[in-house]
Design brief:
By secondary structure, this protein is of the alpha+beta class. It is 22% helix and 38% strand. A hairpin with a 2-residue loop joins strand 5 and strand 6. The protein is globular and about 40 Å long.
C-alpha cells in the first residue's frame, strides 16, 4: 500500500447484494468526514444546502443543485457547516468491472456547473435520474430494483 493511503481511513462500502450499488439520501445537520478513500466511485448530488469538499489537494464548495464525483481510491473529505441533503450513489469498482474490465485505468469526470450546452443537458438528465431514483428508493414499489 502506498504511503499516502496509510495516513487515511479506508471506508468499507456496504452494498445490497440485490443491487450491486449503494444509493441513499444523506441528511446532514453539520459534520466533518475526515480524509478517507474507498474502492467505489462516489457521486453526490445536493438537493438542499451546501457542502465543502476536498478531493486530494483541491478544495471546492458545492451548492444546492450541484453534483460532484470522487473516483475510487482517491482521498477525499467533506465538511458540512449547515444542514444539507444529498443523494449519494456509490458504485464499487468490482461492479463496474462487469461492464468495463479496464475500469481501474479510467478516470471519470463530472463537471458541475458546466458551460457546454450538450454537456449541461446530459448533466441535467443525470440529476433528474438521481431524483427519480430517490423517489423509487423511498417508496420501494414492487420491482423497484
Amino acid at each position: 500500500m502506498s504511503e499516502q493511503y496509510k495516513e487515511h481511513t479506508y471506508e468499507m462500502i456496504r452494498v445490497p447484494e440485490t443491487m450491486g450499488v449503494r444509493f441513499f439520501t444523506q441528511e446532514d445537520t453539520g459534520s466533518y468526514c475526515p480524509n478517507h478513500w474507498h474502492d467505489a466511485i462516489e457521486i453526490v448530488c445536493l438537493v438542499k444546502g451546501e457542502l465543502d469538499v476536498t478531493v486530494e489537494s483541491a478544495a471546492f464548495h458545492v451548492e444546492e443543485g450541484q453534483c460532484f464525483l470522487v473516483n475510487s481510491c482517491v482521498i477525499h473529505s467533506t465538511k458540512c457547516t449547515s444542514s444539507n441533503t444529498g443523494l449519494v450513489l456509490q458504485i464499487p469498482v468490482d461492479f463496474i468491472k462487469l461492464y468495463l474490465p479496464e475500469v481501474e485505468q479510467l478516470k471519470f469526470v463530472l463537471k458541475d456547473p458546466c458551460e457546454e450546452p450538450v454537456e449541461r443537458t446530459k448533466l441535467m438528465r443525470f440529476k433528474e435520474t438521481l431524483l427519480q431514483m430517490q423517489v423509487v428508493n423511498e417508496i420501494r414499489p414492487e420491482g423497484y430494483i
